[in-house]
UniProtKB/TrEMBL annotation:
It comes from the Bacteria. Keywords: Isomerase. InterPro entries: 4-OT, 4-OT-like_dom, Tautomerase/MIF_sf. It is an enzyme of class 5 (isomerase). It holds the Pfam family Tautomerase. The keyword Mitochondrion does not apply. The keyword Hydrolase does not apply. Belongs to the 4-oxalocrotonate tautomerase family. The lineage of its organism: Bacteria, Bacillati, Bacillota, Bacilli, Bacillales. This is Tautomerase.
Amino acid sequence: MPIVTIKITDEGVTTQQKNQLIKGATELLEKVLNKNPAHTFVLIEEISTDNWGVSGESVTVRRERQKKS
C-alpha cells in the first residue's frame, strides 16, 4: 500500500490541479511499480510560504524581493 506525500506552497493551487497530481502520482506508481490504484494513497500538504525556506530565508521574503525587482 504506497503512500505518496506531495508538499507544495499554498499559492493558489486549484482543486483541478490537485486532482491532476493525485491521478498522475497514482498512475506512475501503477506503471512503474505495478501498484494497485485502489490501494494507493496520495496526500497533498499545502504549506504557507512563511513556513517554507530556501537559502536561509522564507519563500515569502524571497517573493516580496522579486516583486520589487
